[in-house]
């Protein structure tokens, strides 16, 4: 099921794409929650973490490899960053195309679960 992220991956709508290869696309979040807020998205349409198959394990690994490269190119690898994936309603997922958030650029503080 295609979402707006597929349109971004295919460059059918604009986004600030900072990394793309045959497997993964990364672009800046439209509503940044930190000075650096990037979404790392598999080009394959996988709706949620619940839909990841064994065959997708290499692809999921590529999301982490992309995150590491982006942290380096954004200049935040040394100071550090946070990777986050939301799943379904209670996880706060809004776009049902698997994506990893990369937050950085300031001390992010402890993990907070808001009521
Ligand atoms: P999540 O709650 O984990 O599903 O996060 C979805 C994120 O996607 C949210 O932080 C805002 C971002 N987002 C939604 N629509 C767009 C868009 O059209 N462009 C960009 N760049 N980001 C978007």
What would you note in describing this structure?
With 115 residues, this protein is of the alpha+beta class. The protein has one domain (4-104): 2-Layer Sandwich (HIT family, subunit A). It has three helices and five strands; from the N terminus they run H-E-E-E-H-E-H-E. The longest helix is centred in the middle third of the chain and has 17 residues, at 57-73. It is globular. The termini are far apart. The relative contact order is 0.22. 2'-deoxyguanosine-5'-monophosphate binds at residues 4, 15, 27-31, 39, 86, 92-95. The site of 2'-deoxyguanosine-5'-monophosphate has 13 residues, from strand 2.
Mean pLDDT: 96
Provide the low-confidence segments as ranges.
none
| Morphology call | globular
**How many H/I helical runs?**
3
- Which CATH architecture is right? 2-Layer Sandwich
The CATH C-level name is: Alpha Beta
Strand segment count: 5
Biggest beta-sheet profile: 5 strands, antiparallel
Distance between the termini: 30 Å
User: What's the number of structural domains?
Assistant: 1
Bound molecules: 2'-deoxyguanosine-5'-monophosphate
What is the N-to-C succession of helices and strands? HEEEHEHE
User: CATH H level: which superfamily?
Assistant: HIT-like
Taking all Cα atoms into account, the compactness measure Rg is: 14 Å
Strand arrangement within the widest β-sheet reads: 1-2-3-5-4
Helix content: 10-25%
State the CATH topology: HIT family, subunit A
Q: Give the structural class.
A: alpha+beta
- Proportion of strand residues: 15-25%
